[in-house]
Structure to design on (936 residues):
């Protein structure tokens, strides 16, 4: 017992975050807080047209304005994203003869400060010849009204898949239904806008780029490849990042321009996006249409699903990850969700248009697939007049079916599918809710209960963070016994400094406060993949665990040698190593470190000088599936069209938890984003291709009063990788839009409503309920 | 160069001077002239609340106010002025204990808004807390743990009453 007490288990503990004090006291430093003497600021002139030829750019007047150092056009920055062959078009860093969406960077002005840069930007004269914009997805797929890029077909990604025997199974099923689902454009909206600062160092010839990014090493590779800067002369530093949600995983044209300007002017240059620029030119997401046909049986069992998945990818494939391809190709792989649906036929078309490129936003394909799959289940239930919970039970993958290969070929590792559904129904008090719903209806109030069971593919070999399937951790015990770890992750609020330290602390037996976790600096971190696709916990945590274990073994070898005991009898904890059962026979890690670095004659034979190592962890599975169930309770007010989400339950299974409080925080945040996705957030382009939602007064984010109190329960089905962790950063936004949409459908069942479009607006509700004759 | 005006501001109890252009926002002057980088700018549209400071104890959006327009003698409190010499305030500690922040970008504005609320209404209930925080957007936390933290900090504000 005494020995156990000496070794607190940090893994799974609800420890407070080491990041918090600096953030709470205003001492943390974000990108716009980077200021160095002589730093210049950059502002962009962006396209006011969705599609136009550029006839002339006159920068003469702008150059003469006070404080202006340079005005850059494409010839100063002749780089393209996607120089590789994957797609036929690559976005130029600055417009090259034409513009393809409103907000596309055309000219960059560098001045003493942002105010002066913006003054000069207004003085740049550009003559455009407008063209007919391509804005409607279905038409664009048919090359109407024209091609977006003269040299490339509009459909830049096409793929189809069909299970053997699909047509027969579909035709043989006794019941069928069809539906079209539409997800409108949304975007991540980190509260800290994007930004980049480049600082050339004349002494070393190197250039340091401060970047608000999720993938520091990938960004270094990108600059190196695209701009032909030797990789060892580049350093990427990620300061504190105020939210990313996938949107900061891209390398953007603006990043290239800032670096090019700094190199050209040999001065530090910074650009920080303003909110209008963010809404125009942070990657967009979720512009999808799905034409769906379903074959099912009277029992509610779903036999076959056919889906034509279409996505509007915008003017260019975002770099290095096209959201349109991600949202469709990956949605097609998880379209059957947690259900055993044996037959699937999918056809994918991703098209160019004259809109902002589509990139990643938390969940990427997940919220799309989940909206379709849960919408299908509710339609089947409605048609058969069955309880939606019952139809889910009928179709749910059963425990004995794991590992389960779904109809698209994706292999699910074990999870708690049916159990999570039952637990969530308990948590929300399902039967009682149904009773209250009936009572409320009698008095003219419309309550609805929406269920959303989900799968979350995590820890994937490749994701929006890149295609590096492993993560790396360097671990060093300093001569005084303090510990420095460095990782290539790019956290944006997930608390990796805390969780990774928790993982390491248990392995080497030191206190949390004696460990510092560095990240986001390519000079200190070993090459790794970065943060995205819910990979940091399982893969990053796995790397931290392996590094910690290897270091722990080295410490035990020292202790065994010094204490004249066998390796297997050494335990680590509390900054010490001791012999099992004899706590007094101990040596401190500090003493070991002293020997390792200074008294090196005493190093046990066969061990190297110092206590330093790098470990990489590549999971054996290419993907690991988390799962769970969300249930939303809403009240809909037909006269005003307003929806309030009044209660919410989550049962989540992400395998082993490193820090349950942090997991719950992630879930809360994702559900709030789901409230936005379901009832508030839409980027709207008008008929000319102008984005009309360019402020947070038009693009509405959920406020504290819009988000319900959530109850959360955890189930634990460990993954078979290191530590048993699965990823969990996205599941909450995967499941929640569908839960809320289904709750709205359920509330408005008397009006025959089945939600097929996100977000649901008050206008939709008024239209549906006023027309029905109730 | 554009004309600047010398102004004097009372920030966190100190009289500070800055040479400012009339069009510079208070947020920009606090950040870039006075080095008080804890005030964050998230929208410059008056919506997100990240730039919240207290003017004579009342929350205000420093992105919407011109620095030259701050009247003489108005006491400005920024997040840097919230820290007690001995460390964090009970509100800040509660936010840490309840995991009321993730990326932390909205946090200074949240702290100041919640501080103003609890100073005036130390008994504020959950509904009132949510209402008072509704002008401060947080994209990370879903608000629940922030609300819990503010509720947990109430006793500290009760004690301070005479
Ligand atoms: S920056 Fe002032 S309200 Fe957003
Ligand atoms: S903690 Fe990230 S915006 Fe609030």
């Amino acid at each position: 017992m005494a020995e156990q007490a000496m070794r607190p288990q940090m893994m799974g503990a609800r420890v407070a975050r080491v990041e918090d004090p600096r953030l709470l006291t205003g001492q943390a430093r974000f990108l716009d807080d980077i200021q160095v003497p002589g730093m210049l600021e950059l502002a962009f002139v962006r396209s006011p047209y969705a599609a136009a030829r550029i006839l002339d750019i006159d920068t003469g007047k702008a150059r003469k304005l006070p404080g202006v150092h340079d005005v850059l056009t494409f010839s100063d920055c002749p780089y393209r994203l996607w120089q590789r062959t994957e797609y036929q078009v690559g976005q130029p860093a600055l417009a090259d003869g034409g513009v393809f969406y409103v907000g596309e960077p055309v000219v960059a002005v560098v001045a003493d400060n942002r105010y002066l840069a913006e003054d000069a930007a207004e003085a740049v004269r550009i003559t455009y010849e407008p063209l007919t914009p391509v804005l409607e997805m279905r038409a664009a797929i048919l090359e109407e009204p024209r091609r977006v890029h003269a040299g490339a077909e509009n459909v830049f990604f096409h793929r189809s898949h069909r299970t053997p025997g699909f047509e027969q199974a579909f035709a043989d099923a006794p019941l069928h239904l069809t539906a079209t689902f539409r997800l409108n454009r949304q975007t991540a909206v980190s509260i800290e806008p994007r930004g980049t600062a480049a600082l050339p160092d004349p002494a070393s010839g190197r250039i340091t780029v401060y970047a608000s990014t999720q993938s520091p090493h990938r960004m270094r590779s990108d600059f190196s490849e695209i701009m032909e800067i030797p990789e060892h002369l580049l350093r990427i530093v990620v300061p504190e990042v105020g939210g990313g949600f996938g949107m900061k995983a891209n390398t953007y044209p603006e990043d290239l321009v800032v670096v090019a300007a700094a190199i050209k002017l040999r001065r530090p240059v910074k650009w920080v996006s303003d909110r209008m620029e963010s809404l125009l030119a942070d990657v967009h997401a979720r512009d999808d249409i799905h034409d769906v046909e379903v074959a099912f049986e009277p029992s509610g069992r779903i036999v076959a699903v056919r889906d034509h998945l279409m996505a509007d990818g915008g003017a260019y494939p975002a770099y290095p990850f096209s959201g349109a391809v991600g949202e469709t190709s990956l949605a097609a792989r998880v379209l059957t969700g947690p259900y055993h649906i044996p037959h699937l036929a999918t056809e994918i078309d991703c098209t160019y248009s004259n809109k902002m490129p589509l990139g990643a936003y938390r969940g990427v394909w997940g919220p799309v697939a989940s909206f379709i799959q849960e919408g299908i289940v509710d339609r089947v239930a409605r048609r058969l007049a069955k309880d939606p919970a019952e139809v889910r039970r009928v179709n749910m993958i059963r425990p004995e079916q794991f590992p389960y290969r779904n109809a698209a070929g994706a292999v699910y590792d074990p999870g708690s599918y049916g159990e999570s559904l039952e637990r969530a129904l308990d948590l929300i008090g399902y039967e009682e809710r149904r009773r209250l719903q009936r009572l409320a209806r009698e008095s003219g109030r419309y309550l609805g209960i929406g269920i959303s069971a989900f799968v979350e593919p995590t820890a994937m070999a490749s994701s929006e963070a890149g295609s590096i399937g492993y993560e790396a951790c360097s671990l060093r015990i300093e001569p005084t016994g303090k510990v420095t770890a460095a990782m290539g992750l790019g956290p944006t609020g997930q608390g990796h400094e805390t969780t990774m330290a928790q993982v390491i602390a248990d392995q080497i037996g030191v206190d949390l406060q004696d460990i510092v976790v560095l990240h986001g600096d390519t000079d200190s971190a070993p090459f790794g993949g970065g943060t995205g696709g819910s990979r940091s916990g399982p893969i990053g945590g796995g790397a931290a665990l392996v590094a910690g274990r290897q270091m722990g073994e080295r410490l035990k070898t020292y202790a065994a040698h010094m204490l004249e005991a066998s390796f297997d009898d050494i335990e680590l904890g509390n900054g010490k190593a001791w012999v099992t059962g004899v706590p007094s026979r101990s040596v401190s890690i500090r003493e070991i470190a002293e020997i390792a670095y200074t008294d090196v004659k005493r190093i046990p034979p066969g061990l190297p000088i110092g206590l330093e190592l790098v470990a990489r962890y590549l999971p054996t599975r290419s993907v690991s599936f988390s799962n769970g169930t969300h249930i939303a309770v809403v009240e809909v007010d037909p006269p005003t069209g307003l929806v309030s989400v009044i209660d919410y339950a989550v049962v989540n299974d992400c395998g082993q938890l490193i820090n349950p409080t942090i997991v719950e925080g992630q879930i809360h945040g994702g559900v709030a984003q789901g409230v936005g996705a379901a009832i508030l957030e839409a980027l709207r382009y008008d008929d000319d291709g102008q984005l009309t939602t360019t402020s947070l007064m038009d693009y509405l984010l959920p406020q504290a009063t819009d988000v319900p109190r959530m109850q959360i329960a955890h189930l634990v089905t460990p993954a078979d990788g290191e530590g048993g962790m699965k990823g969990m950063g996205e599941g909450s936004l995967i499941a929640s839009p569908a839960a809320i949409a289904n709750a709205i459908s359920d509330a408005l069942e008397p009006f025959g409503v089945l939600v097929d479009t996100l977000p649901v607006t008050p206008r939709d509700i008024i239209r549906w309920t006023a027309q029905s004759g109730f | 160069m554009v004309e600047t005006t010398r102004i004097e501001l009372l920030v966190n109890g100190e009289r500070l001077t800055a040479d400012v252009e009339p069009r510079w926002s208070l947020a920009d002057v606090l950040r870039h002239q006075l080095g008080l980088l804890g005030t964050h700018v998230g929208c410059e549209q008056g919506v997100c609340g990240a730039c919240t400071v207290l003017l004579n104890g009342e929350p205000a959006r420093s992105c919407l106010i011109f620095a030259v327009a701050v009247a003489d003698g108005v006491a400005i409190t920024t997040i840097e002025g919230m820290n007690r010499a001995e460390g964090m305030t009970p509100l800040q500690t509660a936010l840490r204990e309840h995991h009321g922040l993730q990326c932390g970008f909205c946090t200074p504005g949240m702290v100041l808004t919640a501080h103003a609320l609890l100073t005036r209404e130390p008994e504020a209930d959950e509904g009132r807390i949510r209402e008072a925080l509704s002008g401060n957007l947080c994209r990370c936390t879903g608000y629940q743990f922030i609300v819990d933290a503010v509720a947990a900090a109430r006793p500290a504000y009760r004690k301070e009453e005479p």
Notes: Chain B touches chain A through 60 residues (CB under 8 Å). Residues 90-159 of chain B form a domain with the DNA polymerase; domain 1 fold (CATH 1.10.150.120). The longest helix of chain B spans residues 107-120. Chain B has a mean pLDDT of 95.
